[in-house]
C-alpha cells in the first residue's frame, strides 16, 4: 500500500491532528534527548501493531475527503469511495426497530441480555432465507454486530500461528486483522506484502480468479465472492476448485458472501451450494449491504457442525466460546430490524433497494466504457474496478479528486495487485451517480 | 471472569494449575474479608497490565480514594498500565471515587472501561465505552491511544447508531437515576435479609451485588457460585440485586426460611 509521495501523504490520528508522515516518524522514533520529560510506562508496544503499515484504508479516505472539502468549500464532492449505503431504510424495517426500542420501556416488553449467538427467530430466518436446502441449521448461524467484527473474532479463534491466504487485491480487513493477531510476519517494504501471507493474485489476465496450482498450502483461505474490490463473482466451477483445493490441503475456507445479493447471473450465492463445503468452510456475511445496515450493525457467521480441527474437535464449539467470552450478542434492536428485513414485505423492499444500487452500477459501467477505459465488475457487485495501466493508483485517485471532486478508492489500498486500479462504488443517490457520470465523461 | 478468559484466549495466561484453577502467568490479587477486599499491593509482583474493577463484581467493594491512590502509585512505580473497570460506579453511595481519573496522575497510567448496561439497562441494547488518555505512553513513547484507535478502526465498525441515540438520551434525562435507585433499594432489602439471618454479607451498599460468606463450604447453590469468580470465591455466593421488586421481596421471604 505505497502512497505516491511521502511529503503529500497525510493521515489523521485519533484526535484529528494531521501530521505528515515524516513528522510522525520524527516524533515517535527519536531518542530521549533529555528534554522529553513525559512519563512513559514500561509496557512495550505490541510489536504486531508496529507492523501495520498505514492507518486503516477507509478512515484514511475519509481524512482525504475532509482535506479536499476544506480546500474547495464550494465544490460539491461526490463520494464514490467508501462503500456505504445511502438510501433510507424501508419503512417496515425502520418501524420494527422503533417499535422494539419503545417496547423496552414497557414492563412486559423489557428485555436484558440476549443469547450471545443471536435470537433463535433471527438465526432461523437467516438459515431459511440464505441457506435453504443447503443443510445449514439455525444452530450453525451466529448473529453478530457486523462482518468486520466477525473477521477479527475469527482471527482470535485461529490464533497467531495460523497461515493464511488472501486474494490480491482484497478488502483490507483480512490482512490487517491477520497482522494484528500475529500471523502475518514482517512486511516487505517495497511491495507492502507480508512474509507469511500467501497472496492469490486476481487480475484481468486470469479473469480475477487465482491460479490455485500456484498457491502454497495455508491453514486458512480467505475468499470473498462477489469480490470487493474487483466485483468478480466466482462461478460454480471455480468454487468447486476452491473447495477441492481446501479439501486436498486440509485447509479452512473463510468465505465472505457479503455482496451475494448483488449477483445477477447463476454464480453461487453461498459456498454451501458446493457439496462438501460444510466440511471445509466458514461463511461470513452482513446486513450492511443487504439491508442498508452499515450504521445499524448486524451480520452473521455460519460455522457448520461438520467442520473439524485436525484433532477432531468441532470448530463450532470454539467459535461459540469466542462469541460468549469476547462478545455479548448483537443489539436486540438491530436484530429486530434484521428480522423485519427478512420478512416477506421487508425482503421485497430490501431487494428493490439493491436493484436501485445495481442500476447505479450499470450507469457507471456505461460511463467508464464510453470513456474507452478497461472496467471490470459492476455486474455482480456494487463496485467497479477501473484499470489505468502503467499508473500509480494514489496519483489517479488524487487527479480524479482534484479535477472532478469525486472520491474513489486507490486500488493499492487493497493490495499490491491493485496498484493500477481505482475502485468506484455504485452506492449513492441516483442524482449524484448521474452527476458523477457527467463529470467523469468530461474528465478524460 | 472476562479479564481472565480473554487473557487465556489471547495467549497470555499460560497453563492452568488443575487443583487451584489458577493460570501460571496471571498474578491473582486476593480480595477477602481479612483485607477488607482490597489487595495487599506490597505482596503483588510487577505485571505489565493490572485489571482493577471497582465497584467490584462480585464482592461489591468500592475502593476508597486512598486505596486508588495506592493503586496508581503502584502502577507508576512499576511502569504498569491499569485497566480500570468502572461499570458499576453509578451505584456508589459514599465518597468513593467513581473514576480512576479522580486520582491525579492516573491519566498517565490508566485506561478506563465502562458500560451503559448497568447504568441505563442496556444489557440487550449493547453500548459501552473505553477511555484512553492521550498521556498514556508505551515504553518507547508511542501513545497507546493511536494503537487503540487502530484496533477500533480495523476490528470493529462502531456501535449501532440506534444504541448511541439511546445512550445520548439516557445521559440527558433524570430517568436512569431513579432506576439505579430502584436496584439499590433492592440491594438494601437483600442486605437486611442476609444480616437478619446472621450471615456474613459484604457489598450491597455501593453495588448491585451481595457477596455472602459461607465459611468452610463449597459454593455451588441456587445463586451464582463464588468459585466461578476465581479461587478466592470458593466459600462465597454472589447475589444480584437486579430484579423486579416483588421478586426481590419474595426471594427475601424464602431466604429467611432457608436457614
Automatic annotation (TrEMBL), chain B:
Its cofactor is pyridoxal 5'-phosphate. InterPro entries: Aminotransferase_I/II_large, DapL/ALD1, PyrdxlP-dep_Trfase, PyrdxlP-dep_Trfase_major, PyrdxlP-dep_Trfase_small. The keyword Transferase applies. One of its GO terms (molecular function) is transaminase activity. Keywords: Aminotransferase, Pyridoxal phosphate, Transferase. Transmembrane segments: none annotated. One of its GO terms (biological process) is systemic acquired resistance, salicylic acid mediated signaling pathway. It holds the Pfam family Aminotran_1_2. Residues 35-254 form the Aminotransferase class I/classII large domain. The keyword Transferase applies. Signal peptide: none annotated. Belongs to the class-I pyridoxal-phosphate-dependent aminotransferase family. LL-diaminopimelate aminotransferase subfamily. This is Aminotransferase class I/classII large domain-containing protein. It comes from Erythranthe guttata (Yellow monkey flower).
Amino acid at each position: 500500500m505505497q502512497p505516491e509521495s511521502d511529503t503529500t501523504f497525510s493521515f489523521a490520528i485519533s484526535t484529528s491532528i494531521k501530521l505528515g508522515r515524516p513528522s510522525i516518524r520524527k516524533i515517535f522514533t527519536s531518542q530521549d534527548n533529555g528534554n522529553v520529560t513525559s512519563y512513559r510506562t514500561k509496557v512495550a508496544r505490541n510489536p504486531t501493531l508496529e507492523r501495520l503499515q498505514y492507518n486503516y484504508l477507509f478512515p484514511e479516505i475519509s481524512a482525504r475527503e475532509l482535506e479536499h472539502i476544506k480546500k474547495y468549500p464550494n465544490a460539491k464532492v461526490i463520494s464514490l469511495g467508501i462503500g456505504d449505503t445511502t438510501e433510507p431504510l424501508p419503512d417496515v424495517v425502520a418501524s420494527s426497530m422503533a417499535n422494539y426500542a419503545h417496547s423496552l420501556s414497557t414492563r412486559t416488553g423489557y428485555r436484558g441480555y440476549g443469547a450471545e449467538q443471536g435470537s433463535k427467530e433471527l438465526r432461523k430466518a437467516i438459515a431459511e432465507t440464505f441457506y435453504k436446502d443447503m443443510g445449514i441449521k439455525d444452530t450453525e448461524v451466529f448473529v453478530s454486530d457486523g462482518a468486520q467484527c466477525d473477521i477479527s473474532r475469527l482471527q482470535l479463534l485461529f490464533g497467531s500461528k495460523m497461515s493464511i491466504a488472501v486474494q490480491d487485491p482484497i478488502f483490507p480487513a483480512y490482512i490487517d486483522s491477520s497482522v494484528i493477531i500475529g500471523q502475518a510476519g514482517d512486511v516487505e517494504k517495497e511491495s507492502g506484502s507480508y512474509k507469511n501471507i500467501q497472496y492469490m493474485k486476481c487480475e484481468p489476465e486470469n479473469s480475477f480468479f487465482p491460479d490455485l496450482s500456484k498457491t502454497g498450502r495455508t491453514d486458512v483461505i480467505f475468499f470473498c465472492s462477489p469480490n470487493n474490490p474487483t466485483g468478480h463473482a466466482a462461478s460454480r466451477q471455480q468454487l468447486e476448485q476452491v473447495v477441492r483445493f481446501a479439501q486436498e490441503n486440509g485447509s479452512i475456507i473463510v468465505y465472505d458472501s457479503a455482496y451475494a445479493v448483488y449477483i445477477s447471473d447463476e454464480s453461487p450465492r453461498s459456498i454451501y451450494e458446493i457439496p462438501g463445503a460444510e466440511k471445509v468452510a466458514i461463511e461470513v456475511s452482513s446486513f450492511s449491504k443487504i439491508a442498508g445496515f452499515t450504521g445499524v450493525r448486524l451480520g452473521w457467521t455460519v460455522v457448520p457442525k461438520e467442520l473439524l480441527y485436525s484433532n477432531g474437535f468441532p470448530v463450532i464449539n470454539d467459535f461459540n466460546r469466542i462469541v460468549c467470552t469476547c462478545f455479548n450478542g448483537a443489539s436486540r434492536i438491530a436484530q429486530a430490524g434484521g428480522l423485519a428485513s427478512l420478512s416477506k414485505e421487508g425482503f421485497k423492499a430490501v431487494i428493490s433497494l439493491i436493484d436501485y444500487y445495481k442500476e447505479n452500477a450499470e450507469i457507471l459501467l456505461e460511463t467508464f466504457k464510453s470513456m474507452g477505459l478497461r472496467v471490470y465488475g459492476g455486474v455482480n457487485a456494487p463496485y467497479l474496478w477501473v484499470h489505468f495501466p502503467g499508473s500509480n493508483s494514489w496519483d489517479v485517485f488524487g487527479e480524479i479528486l482534484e479535477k472532478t471532486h469525486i472520491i474513489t478508492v486507490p486500488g493499492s489500498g487493497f493490495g499490491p495487485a491493485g496498484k493500477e486500479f481505482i475502485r468506484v462504488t455504485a452506492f449513492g443517490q441516483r442524482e449524484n451517480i448521474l452527476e458523477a457520470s457527467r463529470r467523469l465523461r468530461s474528465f478524460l | 471472569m472476562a479479564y481472565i478468559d480473554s487473557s487465556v484466549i489471547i495467549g497470555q495466561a499460560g497453563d492452568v494449575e488443575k487443583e487451584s484453577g489458577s493460570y501460571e502467568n496471571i498474578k491473582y490479587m486476593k480480595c477477602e474479608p481479612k483485607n477488607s477486599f482490597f489487595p495487599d499491593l506490597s505482596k503483588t509482583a510487577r505485571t505489565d497490565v493490572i485489571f482493577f474493577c471497582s465497584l467490584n463484581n462480585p464482592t461489591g467493594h468500592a475502593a476508597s480514594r486512598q486505596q486508588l491512590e495506592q493503586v496508581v502509585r503502584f502502577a507508576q512505580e512499576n511502569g504498569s498500565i491499569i485497566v480500570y473497570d468502572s461499570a458499576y460506579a453509578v451505584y456508589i453511595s459514599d465518597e468513593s471515587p467513581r473514576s480512576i481519573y479522580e486520582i491525579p496522575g492516573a491519566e498517565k497510567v490508566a485506561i478506563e472501561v465502562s458500560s451503559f448496561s448497568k447504568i441505563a439497562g442496556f444489557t440487550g441494547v449493547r453500548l459501552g465505552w473505553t477511555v484512553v488518555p492521550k498521556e498514556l505512553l508505551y515504553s518507547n513513547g508511542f501513545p497507546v491511544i493511536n494503537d487503540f484507535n487502530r484496533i477500533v478502526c480495523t476490528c470493529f465498525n462502531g456501535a449501532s447508531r440506534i444504541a448511541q441515540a439511546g445512550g445520548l438520551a439516557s445521559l440527558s434525562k433524570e430517568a436512569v437515576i431513579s432506576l439505579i435507585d430502584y436496584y439499590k433499594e433492592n440491594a438494601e432489602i437483600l442486605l437486611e435479609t442476609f444480616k437478619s439471618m446472621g450471615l456474613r454479607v459484604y457489598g450491597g451498599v455501593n453495588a448491585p451485588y451481595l457477596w455472602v460468606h459461607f465459611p468452610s463450604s463449597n459454593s455451588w447453590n441456587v445463586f451464582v457460585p463464588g468459585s466461578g469468580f476465581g479461587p478466592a470465591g470458593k466459600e462465597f455466593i454472589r447475589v444480584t440485586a437486579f430484579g423486579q421488586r416483588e421478586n426481590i421481596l419474595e426471594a427475601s421471604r424464602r431466604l429467611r426460611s432457608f436457614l
